[in-house]
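Limitations
The C-alpha cells in this dataset are predictions for the assembled complex, not deposited experimental models. Users should treat interface geometry with appropriate caution, especially where small molecules or nucleic acid strands are included. An illustrative entry is reproduced here so readers can see what is and is not provided.
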Amino acid sequence: DQQVKQNSPSLSVQEGRISILNCDYTNSMFDYFLWYKKYPAEGPTFLISISSIKDKNEDGRFTVFLNKSAKHLSLHIVPSQPGDSAVYFCAASAWTGTASKLTFGTGTRLQVTL
Amino acid sequence: DVKVTQSSRYLVKRTGEKVFLECVQDMDHENMFWYRQDPGLGLRLIYFSYDVKMKEKGDIPEGYSVSREKKERFSLILESASTNQTSMYLCASSRDRATTGQYFGPGTRLTVT
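Predicted assembly:
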C-alpha cells in the first residue's frame, strides 16, 4: 500500500524553464511534507518542507504547494538549472508517539537540459 | 556542519553471513533511522530508534535487527544475509519533531552473492 506516490518516474526540462514535480498521498494523518534531493552515490538532502496547515512555502527558487483536499503537493523550481538534475523524493511525516516517521515516494528523476 | 557517517560505502558479503552496518551521527540527535533504497520502490524504513536502547520496527523489518547502545551510534544487523537484501542502505538522524526532516548518511551499497 503506497501511501505516498510520485507517478512520474522522470522529467526533462530546459534550463531556465519551470520544473514541476508532483506527489500524491493517501493518509490524512500526515502533518508535514518534505522534498529531498538525491545525487548519485550520495544520501538524500533536505530541500524544503511544508506544514499541513499551510498551502505554500517558498525558499529561493523552490516553492512547495499543498492542496489538502486533493491530497496533492507539488514542488516548483524556477528557473531550473543544470545543477538541479537529480532524483527528487517527496516524503510525508507522521508522529508515531515516539518519533516523526517519514514515508517516501518512489522518486522523480529530473534532467535539466541546456 | 551536520554529519552522518556510515562505516562502508561498498560491501560484498556471501549468503548466510552475518552483516553489520554502522552509522554514527555527531549532532546529538535523539532519533536515528535505517532505510533501504531500491529502484522503483523509493526509500523504505527498516527500523528506527528514538532513544538509546529503544527501537521500533519500520515497514520492512523482516530479516534485520538493530542496536543502539550509545546515542550517536545505530547499527543495522542482517542476521543471515540473503540475495534479496542486496540494496543501498541509508542511515539518517533527526531531532524530535524536526520540520527539516532527517539528515542522511552517504549510504552503503551492499551486495549479497
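Some entries come with short summary sentences. For this one: The CA atoms of residues 56 and 65 of chain A lie 5 Å apart.
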